Amino acid sequence: MRIDLARMQRRLAALTTPELGGTPAGGMSRLALSDADRAARDLLVGWLREAGLAVRVDDFGNIYGRRAGADPDAAPVLVGSHLDTVPGGGRFDGILGVVAALEVVSALDDAGAMTRRPIEVVDWTNEEGARFTPAMLASGGLTGVFARDWVYARPDRDGRRFGAELARIGYRGDEAARPRAIAATVELHIEQGPVLEAGGEAVGVVEGIVGIGWHRVTVRGQSAHAGPTPMAARRDAMVAAARMVVAARDLARERGDLNATVGSLTPEPGVINVIPPTVRFSLDLRARDDAVHDAALTELARASPRSPPRRGWRWRSPRSGASRRRRSTPPSGTARRRSAASEVTAPAGSGAAPATIRSTWRASPPPPCSSSRRSAA
Ligand SMILES: [Zn+2]
C-alpha cells in the first residue's frame, strides 16, 4: 500500500497559506480558536467529508472524522495531531500529523482496504497552549485531566475565554461526540530537535514524553571587596554557582536520560568590583521518569563526580516527600508539574566557609510542545 505524496503536499500547502496563518518566512502563526484556526478547521472538515468520513466535534472542539471498521463494536484507533501553532511556529508542527492521518485513510480507500477497527482522524484543540495555557488543554479535557468548566474559563492574554472563543468560531460541539472508548492513538510529529537528522534516521519512535521541573536556585556567599579580600578567604557565590551549572551539565551528559539547562543567572549586586554575596539561577530539568528527575536533584546537590569535592557543593537536606506534600493540585496540576522546597549547603568557591544555597522547586506550566529527546507533542 502506498501513500500519495503529491496529495499530502497539496493538503499541507493548502493548510499553510497566508490566509491560514502562513508567515512570509515559511513558518506558521495560527493560534487556537482564532479566525485562521477556524478557516483551517473548515478546510479539514471539508476534506474529511469528501473522504466519506463521519465528522463529529466534541465539547472541547476536538474534530473527529471516522472511517468505519469491519467490527462495528471495536474501539477506534485515533490518528491525528493539531492544527494550532505557536506564534512563528513550524510549518509541519502538528499540521503534518493531521494531514498524514487523512492520508492514511485516503490510502486505505485507494487500496480498497478495510480495517477491523474504525479509524478516526483527529484534530486536537489548543494542543500547543500558546493562546490558552496549559498545552494539551482539550486532549487533557477529553481524558479527564482537566474539568470542562475550568478549560472553558481559561483566558488568553486579552481576557477572552476558551469557551467563548470556541463558540465564536462555531466549534463548540457536544459531549456526546467524545469517543467513548479509544483502542490507541497514533501521532506522526516532526522532530523538533537535531537527533534524527544528524543520525540519518527517517523516523523515530517516541518512547515517552519528558516531565519538566523548573527550579530557582539561590546561592549565598559573602559580600566583599575585590581588592583587599584575599582569594583564600572569599565566599564567592558566583564561583559556587558556576560550579553548580557545570555540575548540572556534566550530570545530564553522563546520565543520558536527563536534560539540564541553566538559562538565567543573576548575581547581586552585579557590580564589577564586588564579590557577589548572592547569585540566583534557573534550573530546567527534564526526564522521562520522575525518579530520574528527583535523583538528579539529589545527586547534583551531593557533588557531581566531575566536580571535585573540595570545591564542590553538597546537598544537606532534600526533605523526603517534600515534592509530594507541596505538589500543586488539579485542575491546574498535571503530571508534569512538581513543586517542593529543599535546602542545600555548599562550600563556597574558594573559601573554607560554607555558603548556603536554597533551592526552591517551583510549580510551572509546561512550555508549548514539550519535547522528548526523540520527538515531541
Ligand atoms: Zn506539535
Describe the overall structure.
This protein has 377 residues and is an alpha+beta fold. It folds into two domains: 5-190, Zn peptidases (Aminopeptidase, 3-Layer(aba) Sandwich); 211-362, 2-Layer Sandwich (Alpha-Beta Plaits). 27% of the residues lie in helices and 20% in strands. It has helices at residues 5-14, 35-50, 95-110, 137-142, 148-152, 162-168, 195-199, 237-255, 290-302, 322-325; strands at residues 54-57, 63-67, 77-81, 119-123, 184-186, 211-220, 224-225, 258-261, 265-268, 274-275, 278-287, 314-317, 340-347, 354-362. The strands form three sheets. Strands 6, 8, 9, 11, 12, 13 and 14 form a seven-stranded antiparallel β-sheet that branches. The protein is elongated. The structure holds zinc ion. Residues 82, 93-94, 189, 369, 376-377 line the site of zinc ion (ZN).
Notable features of this structure?
binds zinc ion, Aminopeptidase, alpha+beta, Alpha-Beta Plaits, 2 domains, 377 residues, disordered C terminus, 20% strand, seven-stranded antiparallel β-sheet, 14 strands, 10 helices, 27% helix, five-stranded mixed β-sheet
